[in-house]
Design brief:
Blueprint (H helix, E strand, L loop, with lengths): L3 H7 L7 H10 L3 E3 L8 E4 L2 E6 L18 E5 L3 H9 L16 E5 L8 H15 L2 H10 L9
Antiparallel strand pairs: 1-2, 2-3, 3-4, 4-5
Helix pairs in contact: 2-4
């Protein structure tokens, strides 16, 4: 896993890595890794998942070979509008499948994580955490980071 110092040397616009996903998730407060998922971590806040590294499933497959993708990360999003904006933007590698219709999450293959910047992946993970954390925890984190809760005006 990358250290904070090594990420800082690369800079926020550097291509993201899988280590950046882990670092962003574990940097958020009150995060636990669901027991027994160390090889494919499930990051949770208050018992609610916000990022998880998925096992190969039949809904996410290579269109040419039919082989199941073994590198899919599920990342929660705040709303359906956010999800649609992310998956409809063809300039980024985020996607969804029919299995996730109605689920407030987007999918990202780790083999394509370098197509987004470290800053973008960090913000995506922070938004995922904010969407799943308790209102109180989210407000505290936002205040500590000099940010505002857009949902409350």
């Amino acid at each position: 896993m990358a250290t904070i110092a090594s990420m800082a040397r690369r800079g926020p616009t550097s291509p993201a890595t899988v280590a950046d996903i882990h670092a962003a998730a574990t940097a958020m407060p009150h995060v636990t890794v669901y027991p027994g998922t160390e090889s494919r971590p499930v990051y949770q806040v208050g018992g609610k998942s916000f990022v998880f590294f998925r096992t190969p499933r039949p809904d996410a497959v290579d269109p040419e070979t039919g082989e199941r993708f073994d590198d899919v990360v599920v990342i929660w999003v705040p709303s359906e509008a956010d999800k649609q904006a992310l998956v409809q933007d063809l300039s980024n590698p985020l996607f969804t499948t029919k299995h996730f219709d109605g689920h407030l999450s987007v999918l990202l293959r780790t083999s394509r994580v370098g197509e987004v910047s470290r800053q973008e992946v960090t913000e995506l993970i922070q938004d995922a955490w904010l969407s799943r954390a308790s209102r109180r925890r989210a407000q505290i984190w936002l205040a500590e980071n000099g940010l505002t809760d857009d949902a409350s005006g």
